Amino acid sequence: MGWAMAGHGADEHPHGADRLCEAGDRVYSRAVRRGRLPRREAERVPCLLELALLHPDPDDMDYLVPTSPQEVMTRLLRGMYDEVRASQRRVGSAVAAFEWYAGLGRQVPSAGASAEGPAIRVLDGLARIQAAMDEATQACTSEVLTVQPGGIRREAELSEGLHRAMALRGRGVRMRDLYTHVARHGHGLLSYLELMGDAVEARTLDEVVERLILFDRTVAFIPANAERTMALELRHPALVEYLGTVFERLWRLAIPLTAPLPDTGIEGISHREQSIAALLAEGHQDAVIAERLGISVRTCRAHIARLSETLGAVSRTQLGVRIAQAGLDGARPPVVIPPGRGSPTAR
């Protein structure tokens, strides 16, 4: 859903609902406090009508009533989710293209090797991958960006890369890590971040792209097979820059690990269940949803059962209909149910 201004008043108020102008802020806040306000008080801020933050009072057309802040929040969150999904689709296509080109590269002599090595190198086996990562760590001087999918990080995974992280911290290298929201529940990750201090900043999203490690915006590592026993070492400037841009887009949309997850604004439905509902509406199977969100299939099905109970659905078909009716399919903003006025089936 777009929130850009269009039509009358766009020149004077070039913004969206996520950053109101000063005049719009004052008028909208006043409308929320009062419940409604005379139409003339909003004449200088047409942006509020164009952004659907104010709309005519059906009982008295000379007055305007505000859209509830909870509904505005859910609209903004849905826009963020759409951006994330679009970025993930683009990255998936790019990774498939990298693998195809890498396959061609093994068949012909390399004509684009640089002083640091070939633009795309296939690393076969965990030993070669770890050796290449150690080499990149030693050469790194300023920044490491990582995307870590898969939910809660296992202690063994964190321990395997700890020596590299400590070496980087000792040289003053800044590290930024992206995880799924599920990773917030891992005690090992919290201990790791406490040990690293301000050298590492972490944020989370509902879903992240496949694993990515980017050193100094010059060399990147991504998986080359589903088992992650092969990797691609990328040094082509255009590819590395593209991956850095994708990371920054996801980072901007992510939530700091130290901040709580936003409320969905829908009584009885958690943030994770809202994400599951959107993926169900896209037609994904339970196993795919679980993998994308970094949870087990069993946990995923437990959330689906709670969704069915909350929405009053007795079958998967009916659940799909109820998801669409509640706006949880992403086709329109979710319905905001004020506290105390939820469905009889709500927990």
UniProtKB/TrEMBL annotation:
Source organism, top-level taxon: Bacteria
Record-linked SUPFAM superfamilies: C-terminal effector domain of the bipartite response regulators
GO aspect biological process, one term: regulation of DNA-templated transcription
GO terms of molecular function: DNA binding
Matches recorded under Pfam families: GerE
Record-annotated HTH luxR-type domain positions: 262-327
Protein name: Regulatory protein
Organism expressing this protein natively: Streptomyces gancidicus BKS 13-15
Lineage, top ranks: Bacteria, Bacillati, Actinomycetota, Actinomycetes, Kitasatosporales
